[in-house]
Design goal:
10-stranded mixed beta sheet; alpha/beta; about 475 residues
């Protein structure tokens, strides 16, 4: 059964899951993908110290998916999974090795362009340097503004970011920012007295401008903010990698400076989510826009920030660079007025590689690249899952999800989660319904399930084609 689930999930979608009325306008889609935000970093997911009122309101107005998994436990492969709809078993990398997007990597942006959408994005790209052919404009995006280099994205006060539009890839200067000469800064830390232009704010304004320019036609916008990722080099050189213009309401807290900065970064980002929703209302397109918020992996312990200080992983075990729940399960909120019931949530397991299938479902796409995904649109809309794959109707509650990082692997089906630290290590098994913190290995009590998970981990790496 587990092999069949994998094969079904990877085949071409033949029939959309939710019938759309003929007179329905194509909905806009805005997908916010923040960087290193933990499962427990938002108030609506249990955070007690950091204020996130706008995202808490978004959750109240829409749906939370409480078992949503990032593409990977680190940045670059997580984004590659998102863009291509393929799990880590079908990717060329499962760690932060350099990777340049190839013409054969058919992206969700290309899929949406084929459906008549104008496509834009801001933030961290990480899939191709200037001049490499991997830039976003060569992979489905009409517009992108942000960081092309993943490591340079550590710095919130760089001398420039990149603006890609049409056939041009050009530097966008950020006035007043001057880099340190310290060799340990590696060209990624601005002088403390020369931090004038905050990159997050520039990218946010570019995102809002894109919405204004395209409010009269269907658009896809990916907002890949770098908040709250630490400036790793900044943490080593200055002791504080949480770079933010002001500590704001946290300035007088008796907290270490990196923690004040971390909290301020999250609240700063939260405020911008509120501004974005206000803009959609102002333009009268809120009711025709599906807005999604999630994170690219679990919380970091870098730049002076400690995971336990704010309980950033909530009840989960582990954090970034592990395949325990804290490294890969992330907050997920979706809102679409009149379509998604307010104040709802679902514990069905979904993954970043389900986004392509969801976009295809949403737009009635007729031709979709082979992928591992299953649309989560029926769950958001409280509709019966009607996706026909190879003339079958897979139950999303029964399929197995897959993740990996370096030599580590993880798989989940229903309440059972399997973890293997290396190919020569035994599989650990946890019942997440009873033990969400993965404290008690029950592998010896369930040999049949362990064998099923072992078989799946092997099959998850077999070619889709």
């Amino acid at each position: 059964m587990h092999r069949l689930v994998l094969l079904l999930a990877g085949l071409l979608f033949l029939v959309p899951s939710v019938a759309r009325a003929a007179d329905d306008a194509k909905p806009n889609v805005i997908f916010i993908y923040v960087d290193d935000l933990g499962y427990g970093d938002l108030g609506c997911f249990g955070q007690q110290k950091i204020a996130t009122p706008k995202l808490d309101q978004m959750a109240g107005d829409g749906m939370k998916l409480t078992s949503f998994y990032a593409g990977c436990t680190v940045c670059r492969p997580s984004r590659l999974v998102l863009w291509t709809g393929r799990s880590l078993g079908h990717q060329p990398i499962n760690d932060n090795k350099p990777y340049t997007m190839k013409p054969s990597d058919h992206t969700i942006a290309e899929l949406m362009k084929e459906q008549g959408y104008t496509t834009g994005g801001v933030g961290k790209w990480a899939m191709g340097e200037p001049g490499s052919g991997g830039e976003p404009i060569y992979h489905g995006f009409d517009f992108w503004c942000g960081y092309l280099n993943q490591s340079n994205a550590h710095n919130y006060y760089p001398p420039n970011i990149w603006r890609c539009e049409g056939d041009k890839v050009e530097e966008l200067p950020l006035p007043g920012n001057v880099l340190m000469d310290d060799k340990n800064a590696r060209g990624r830390v601005a002088k403390l007295d020369a931090r004038k232009t905050y990159s997050h704010d520039v990218m946010t304004q570019e995102a809002f401008d894109f919405v204004r320019r395209n409010a009269d036609k269907p658009f896809l916008l990916h907002i890949h903010w770098t908040i709250p990722h630490a400036n790793n080099e900044g943490g080593r050189v200055t002791g504080n990698g949480s770079e933010v213009p002001s500590y704001g309401q946290y300035a007088d807290k008796d907290w270490p400076a990196p923690e004040k900065g971390f909290a301020a970064m999250v609240t700063h980002m939260d405020s911008d989510v509120g501004k974005l929703r206000d803009l959609l209302k102002e333009l009268k397109i809120e009711d025709n826009t599906l807005l999604i918020f999630t994170s690219d992996n679990g919380p970091h312990q870098e730049g002076g920030h400690k995971v336990d200080f704010f309980d950033s992983n909530g009840p989960l075990k582990g954090y970034k660079r592990t395949v325990y729940e804290g490294g890969i399960r992330v907050p997920f909120i979706a809102v679409w007025p009149g379509k998604i019931a307010p104040g709802t949530e679902s514990g069905i397991t979904f993954n970043a590689y389900d986004v392509m299938a969801t976009y295809a479902d949403l737009t009635n796409a007729k031709v979709v690249p082979l992928n591992d995904g299953l649309s989560f649109l029926p769950t958001l809309l409280n509709k019966q899952q009607k996706v026909v794959v190879a003339n079958r109707k897979p139950d999303p509650k029964q399929r197995i999800s897959y993740s990996s990082f370096a030599k580590m692997e993880a798989a989940r089906q229903g309440e059972f989660k399997a973890v293997r630290q290396a190919p020569d290590k035994p599989i650990e098994l946890y019942n997440l319904q009873e033990d969400i913190g993965e404290t008690t290995d029950i592998a010896k009590d369930h040999p049949t399930i362990v064998q099923m998970m072992a078989d799946f981990m092997k099959e998850a790496k077999e070619p889709l084609e």
